[in-house]
Design brief:
globular
Length: 356
């Protein structure tokens, strides 16, 4: 892929660095407009959802789905702030990142720290485990204990991955800091929890505790499930890149290890262009509203094959990384590998017997 994309070195600087640099400057007008067209509708939807509860769930349900879409968009804004790409000002990014982080139940500094690790290790088989979807190789699975194999199958089950998992992560897991987190990251968790508690108390007083919990949990479920699906497809797709650390390459990991998820325009809007994930991993400093322009402006990026909404469902069949075949495979591959290993052992036993 690196040769096919002609990512050659020029004067010691990769050609793609010169390309993406033209799209890394935030546009204050577009950033402010994105805040207006995202946060205000989300607040209005909260009021409409509350009023609709007294009328009919048939009205509330589509409002919840729509609010979930806006919450995904709010997360993208927070995500851009974490990369320092939404505003030129670091302080402005941090303030808005904290506020939008509270709305998504995500501690801004703590998440930013973990997400930076994800960007630095994506596609590296020797540095898995932080900010990614749990992925074992075929051999690792075969050598794992029965309990670990059970836990892995449970974690990769679609119900656990896209329904239970998001609620666990956003409502529970992110309420506690990692043992490896620094002081600022830990304090970010505590301040976020305090802010969430304050907002919950205020909205419960206005709407009532039951109404608040119904709306908050339902919207978080929709947004969390959609967000988890996006993240899953971005790094679990046919032709994805994985390498051991000595052979790992940042450019290849970005352009081959992160998908170009070609979504319908309305879904592209709600997801803040994050489907152009190959561009985002190549340069996290590009604001979300410049990602498509960067992709379309350069043939080198357009040569990345797209994953469509329809074809993305094939990702549900991927379970393990097969290092022999260099591709994601399903559990069915295990039978063939076990058979090969049995045949190899039998052949070895026959050769030993012949020598003796």
């Amino acid at each position: 892929m690196k040769n096919d994309l002609n990512l050659k070195k020029e004067n010691g600087i990769s050609a793609w660095k010169e390309i993406v640099a033209r799209y890394q400057t935030p546009a204050i007008g577009r950033s402010l407009w994105q805040i207006v067209n995202t946060l205000i509708p989300y607040a209005v939807l909260w009021y409409l959802m509350y009023r609709s509860l007294a009328i009919s769930w048939w009205i509330t349900a589509p409002l919840i789905a729509l609010a979930g879409g806006f919450l995904v968009r709010i997360f993208i804004i927070s995500h851009d702030c974490g990369h320092g790409s939404f505003f030129k000002s670091t302080k402005a990014n941090d303030i808005l990142g904290f506020v939008t982080g509270v709305l998504t139940f995500t501690p801004y500094y703590h998440w930013r720290w973990e997400h930076a690790l994800h960007h630095g290790t994506s596609g590296d088989l020797d540095r898995r485990g932080t900010g990614d979807v749990w992925t074992l190789t075929v051999q690792e699975y075969l050598e794992a204990s029965r309990w670990k194999r059970f836990a892995y199958r449970l974690a990769r089950n679609p119900v656990a991955l896209f329904l239970i998992g998001p609620l666990f992560v956003f409502l529970l897991k992110q309420r506690f800091p990692s043992a490896k987190a620094g002081r600022r990251e830990r304090h970010s968790v505590y301040w976020t929890n305090l802010a969430i508690l304050g907002i919950a108390a205020g909205l419960s007083r206005i709407f009532g505790l039951e109404a608040y919990l119904i709306i908050q949990v339902a919207v978080m479920l929709v947004a969390g499930s959609a967000g988890m699906w996006l993240f899953y497809v971005q790094h679990q797709f046919e032709g994805v890149y994985w390498e051991r650390r000595p052979d790992w390459d940042y450019t290849a990991a970005a352009l081959q290890g992160s998908s170009f998820y070609k979504l319908p325009k309305v879904l592209q809007w709600f997801t803040g262009n994050i489907g152009f994930h190959h561009i985002h991993h190549l340069s996290p400093r590009i604001p979300n509203y410049h990602l498509e322009r960067c992709h379309r402006a350069e043939p080198v990026f357009q040569s990345v094959p797209p994953v469509t909404l329809f074809s993305s469902f094939k990702s549900l069949t991927f379970r393990l990384w097969d290092e022999q075949r260099r591709k994601l495979v399903g559990y069915g591959r295990l039978r063939a590998v076990r058979r090969q290993q049995r045949e190899a052992l039998a052949s070895l036993a026959r050769r030993r017997a012949a020598r003796s």
